[in-house]
Structure formats: C-alpha cells, structure tokens
Design a protein that fits this description.
Its cofactor is Mg(2+). This protein is an alpha/beta fold and about 230 residues long. The chain has helices at about 5-10, 40-45, 75-80, 85-90, 100-110, 125-135, 150-160, 170-180, 190-205, 205-210, 210-215; strands at about 15-20, 30-40, 50, 55, 60-65, 115-120, 145-150, 215-220. The chain has a 6-stranded mixed sheet with strand order 5-2-1-6-7-8, with helices on both faces. It has a two-stranded antiparallel sheet with strand order 3-4.
C-alpha cells in the first residue's frame, strides 16, 4: 500500500536507521547494534556545504546508538564484517533487546517533530522486519501510523525514471562511491552506515522528498521477519 500524498509529504522528521545483527534473514538474526539519527525536514531542505562547496552533514542531529547482546551466536561472517562478537559484547556487559530499549526507541521517536518517517537502506527487506520481530518478542510495537522508506527502492525508482541503471548495484557503498567518488567511512558500523545514508540522501534530497508518497509505507504494513 502506498500512503497518501498528504501523509507522506507531511513528515517533519526523517529518522535514518541501521541495524547490525547476528546474520542474514535465513539465520533468524537478532540485533547486535541499532542506530537512529533524526533529521528535521528543515535540514533536508536547507543543505549546508563546506568552503569547497561539498555537502556536509546537518549540524542539528539527534542520535540513539546502542550495542545489544543478541542472546545467540553471531556468525563468523557477521562478526568479521561488523567487528561485533559475542565475546566483546559480553565483556562490555551489553544488555539484551529488552523493555528498556523498547522504551528508549519509542521515546526517541516521540521526541521528534511529528509525523516521523523511518528511513533505512534495504529497510523493507531487512531492517524494518527485523526490528518488528524484536519488538514483537517484547510484546511491543511502534506507532502503526509511522512512515517507512527504503532507500534501495528510492534510488532504483529515481534511476528508472530517467532510464538509468545503477552501476555496480544499489548497495549503500556503491551508491556512496558513485555520488562522492570515494569509499564511505566506517561501513558496517551502524552509526557509520547511517551517516553515509544521510549523505547520499542529501545528494538527491529534493528529488527524494518530491517522491515520498510513491515510496513510503506505514509501519503497520511491515511484516515481521520471523515469528
């Protein structure tokens, strides 16, 4: 279901999100790290640049970044990619995905200017379903009216509209390299990925904001990754 033009274009805050986890979808993954960075619409419409004219991150950002004890083994591949292991999470006494974390997420979202749109790269396939699974295990949820946007879908949509195909695919790293001619910093670190996502979003902010009604869903439409 595509949301109405009025609802999608009324979002006042975009909360960019990334999860790191124990593995991929078929591994029944658990979250090991979550990062949410909130950016007000004003900062997306009024871009700032450095003295060389290069885009910079907005100055006004709210962040919630936490590591999480998954309570199950992290695959070797996931540990190699993210730098998170059961050992270092345990040594640093990280807590599980629990009611306290649910409260923090909801209060972080509630603190932002409403309505809010969650934004994640590959979000419809991975981040949103996994977060919904973790919330349901705590018998909790987010507001069903919360908007959600997947930037993989958005960048495909923008390219298709002008008859282009993304060279080297639509991974966050590939889009970042095409846009800025360099590698993103701290890939597969949840905060690093979120900041890279914000930068590629800013590079096409006007186009993306104009097409939100085509590329958003409500949180209530997101299905959990697994039961």
């Amino acid at each position: 279901m595509i949301v109405s033009d009025t609802m999608a274009t009324s979002a006042k805050t975009l909360v960019f999100m990334d999860l790191e986890a124990t593995g991929l979808n078929n591994d029944l993954p658990k979250i090991t790290e979550i990062c949410l960075v909130a950016v007000h619409l004003s900062s997306l419409e009024n871009l700032i640049t450095d003295e060389d004219g290069q885009l910079e991150l907005p100055r006004v950002l709210d962040k919630l970044c936490l590591c999480v004890d998954p309570g199950k083994p992290i695959t070797g591949k996931a540990s190699e990619i993210t730098g998170l292991s059961n050992t270092n999470l345990d040594k640093n006494e990280k807590q599980a995905f629990n009611p306290c974390l649910v409260h923090l997420i909801n209060e972080f979202l509630n603190r932002q200017a409403q309505p809010v749109c969650l934004v994640a790269h590959n979000g419809f396939y991975y981040d949103f379903p996994l977060l919904k699974t973790e919330l349901q295990k705590q018998e909790a949820s987010l507001s069903s009216a919360l908007l959600c946007m997947d930037t993989v879908q958005v960048f495909r949509f923008l390219d298709k509209r002008v008859g282009k195909v993304g060279e080297n695919g639509y991974s966050l790293e590939a889009i970042y390299r095409r846009t800025f001619k360099k590698d993103p910093i701290n890939s597969h670190n949840a905060e690093g990925d979120v900041l890279a996502l914000i930068m590629v979003f800013l590079s096409k902010a006007d186009q993306i904001l104009d097409t939100m009604s085509t590329n958003c869903k409500r949180w209530g439409e997101i299905c959990p990754m697994y039961g």
